[in-house]
Write a structure and sequence with these properties.
The protein is mostly helical. It contains ten helices and no strands.
Amino acid sequence: MKSSDAAQLFRSGFNCSQSVVSVFADEYGIDKHVLRLLSSGFGGGMGGMQNVCGAASGAFMILGLKYGYGEESESYKKPQLYKIIQDFSREFSAQNGHLRCYDLLGCDLNTEDGKEFFKKNELRERVCVECVKNSVELLEKFLNPPEKF
């Protein structure tokens, strides 16, 4: 299961964003190392600033691979992609309580008190791992929507 694989990657030392994108590399024919490099700055809510959760940011990248555009002539795809990102964000927030890393954790990881709170309350396992798993599961739903009749 991809969500379990992503959780294991996170536990092994990859950041939340890297863990999410890595499990979709083969599906999109992209080298895992390249995806990990591209997503490496998104952990900790964008470079440790605790903005948008890195697990969600990783999902946005994968959604871009499926629904995005890479040519000027395909820019008509932008509104659909943005709607999908917004829908994903709403569902991620509904499942996890928030979209922002700071709000998810309830502490500032850029302070000693915040780091201590994070460690003492085992937030890496209790919150971050769950966000990684939830992001992958939700992403699979968005990548494989049920067919419309």
